[in-house]
Amino acid sequence: MDTDERLDAIVVGAGFGGLHMLYRLRERGFSARVLEMGTGVGGTWYWNRYPGSRVDLESVEYSYSFLPELEQEWNWTELMPAQPEILAYLEWIADRLDLRRDIRFSTRVVAATWNEQTATWTVETDAGEKLDARFLITATGCLSAPLEPAIAGVADFAGDVLHTNRYPKAGYDFEGKRVAVIGTGSSGVQAIPVIAEEAATLHVFQRSAAYTRPANNRPLRAGEMEELKAEYPEIRARQRTSHSGTLRFGAFAVDELYRTDRLILQTAEEDRLRILDDEGWTAPGTFADVMVDIDANRAANELYAELIRRTVSDPRTAAALVPQYPMGCKRPIIDTGYYETFNRENVTLVDLRADPLVGITATGIETESGHVEVDTIVFATGFDAITGPLDRIEIRGRGGRLLRDGWVDGPHTYLGLAVAGFPNLFTITGPLSPSVLANMVMAVEQHGDWITDCLAHMREHEYLTIEATPEAEEEWTRHTLEVAETVPVRVHESCGSWYLGSNVPGKKRVYLVYTGGMPAYRARCDEVASGGYTGFVLG
Ligand code: NA7
User: Fold this and answer.
1) Low-confidence residues of the chain, pLDDT below 50?
2) By alpha-carbon position, which residue is closest to atom 30 of ligand 1?
3) DSSP string computed for 152-199
4) pTM of the full predicted structure?
């Protein structure tokens, strides 16, 4: 097989990160090619087409800021748009910026190997093709490696099988079907109310209950988009100073959501209930001690249980819907009519904690207490998050070392952007960067801009390689883990989450995200660059 191309950069993935990266590289005169396994752009929003799929941030914040004219040309229709609208936005971006000519679709990257002699990466695709480039930039996303559900008999099922994270483009007609949904993370919680409205019956198989609250989504009012367009400069400026790169989460102002002055353990029981009456679903999480004190967290969980009891009419179902792990351990979910769905006659909750799953048969799902016959199973079982997308590519650095082998005890990275022993590799929203704890669009723009500046610096000073030092990598990895420990519920022994990798059998339990916030992270990256790329060796 011959190497057919020589490029400055190969970018893997054409989602938010890859499209921005390609634009920036081209703008600065670098030749680049994006390799994308889907047949179109969109990344997360290309694959996750399940009913109810929707972003949990407001559209004006969950959108590109790098070209102000794009903000003025695109009109959002809802506060928090659904998947088709976000995909349409990214398709529009690809056309508007003429990006498609440098994207190769239906092309999965299977391997990438660093060549010491030529100081280039050779990237191999699933078609056996090889491409060379000086830089390899992964824009593979954090939630793009689907988890195959490890359930006995899964291959025996004779009905239809759907996965939320690889949902069919043509959609699926649930009308008249007996349906099972397995998984009640964000994807399940979003899909369940929509499926319930169409299906004849819906059984929800829940292993861990979700902390979810109403999204309060709505269409934008007439004239509201024009007002927002005028406010974009201010919105963007404020986003940049916000810890999570977002001012609002699910139609709630983040500042108001996370109060700092109210402690649940110092609030009398009747006052807690009064606060609940006044503030509803946002109340339990807004006490300052909830994320740092496990007893406070339990008290908040009790308030949360009270809200569920007020919404779900059957007491047994309401009790089963109460999470048994700390609030804030997993990503909070926002929903549209989730708990109300369990008041429908055609919906049944199967609590797998009380009635464990035995396996899947040709006709349905078996638990210890019996068998449920279904026509369709929807798996909403999640991802091998953050490291999974990189681990699934054979990335070999100096001396043929395999990236994933070095991460058996958890990922080691410098700034979540680079790895010692892997020169000229940049990982957009990589492990130990703010990524999923920030507004992902802001996170990919910050990384893409930093990488482009770095490449321009190297061109100007005629450097061929850049590589993180083992010391810098070690310091950043340790720092990231120390910062994660400052929010005890996220790493508490009773917390299992994909942030910790604990949803993947055998994966080392390590917090995979930098929790110190976007402003601190951005400042650190800028300091590294302005100091002449401290912590890196340039050669
Ligand atoms: P998540 O949040 O990882 O949710 C997956 C769900 O599937 C979760 O409830 C799991 O239970 C459940 N699950 C996984 N495997 C099984 C098996 N074998 N049996 C029963 N239940 C199972 O993925 P999502 O796609 O919903 O959301 C991912 C992110 O996308 C989300 O956080 C947002 O940021 C957007 P468990 O909790 O492991 O007990």
Assistant:
1) 1-3
2) 186
3) TTGGG--SEEEEGGG--TT----TT-EEEEE--SHHHHHHHHHHHHHS
4) 0.96
